[in-house]
Amino acid sequence: MTRAELTEKIVAHKTFNDIKWKDVATAVGQSKEWVTAALMGQISLTKEQAIAAGNAMGLNFSDEELALLMTVPYRGSIATAVPTDPLIYRLYEVVAVYGTTMKALIEEEFGDGIMSAIDFTMDIQREENPAGDRVKIEMTGKFLPYKTF
Predict the structure, then answer these.
(1) Where is the active site (predicted)?
(2) Is 65 marked active-site?
(3) What is the mean predicted confidence (pLDDT) over 84-92?
């Protein structure tokens, strides 16, 4: 079994059994964003976390599957340079349109550097609005200044 095949198995089982990522996250003891990324193949789990996720989903992972969940992944979940999935494309579009603005404002506030995607948290929430519910995405990453040498 490959890691991609395991991801497909997890997603199919989740969908068929109407399991919510937030419920799995509660069982694992981490955020829904982190656990979802891990089960989608972008973050490695400890053996205990993988077993807790499997138990929460009603999946009895084999030793091979546990090992795949524990293996540090090759990161990057988008198969094409420009995403074709409409939701992912809209996030790409936000960066395409506002990326230089975000960069300018971050550099003005912090200086020359980057926002870490390793020392990072993300929170996705539904925000009710009379004009139509909103998607609220909050990303927090440690600022890493470029060093001179």
Answers:
(1) 90, 93, 116
(2) no
(3) 95
Catalytic site includes residue 90: yes
Instruction: Please tell me the pTM assigned to this model.
Output: 0.87
Would residue 79 count as lying in a domain? no
Mean pLDDT of 139-143: 97
Task: Check which CATH number belongs to the domain holding 16 and give it.
Answer: 1.10.260.40
Q: Which of 56, 66, 54 is closest to 26 using CA atoms?
A: 56
When computed from its CA atoms, the radius of gyration of the chain, rounded to whole angstroms, is 18
**Model confidence over 46-62: pLDDT tens digits?**
999 999 999 999 999 99
Would the CA dihedral through 48, 50, 54, 59 be positive or negative? negative
Q: Tokens at residue 39, please?
A: 């089960």
Domain count, the chain: 2
Q: Return phi, psi of residue 20, to 5°.
A: -100, 140
User: Residue 77 pLDDT more than 90?
Assistant: no
User: What letter would DSSP give residue 72?
Assistant: P
Residue 44 known to be catalytic: no
Maximum CA pair distance of the chain? Answer: 55
Tell me which of 93, 107, 134, 138 is the catalytic residue.
Answer: 93
Q: Within 10 A of 84 (CB to CB), how many other CB atoms are there?
A: 10
Which residue of the set 5, 62, 75, 90 is catalytic?
Answer: 90
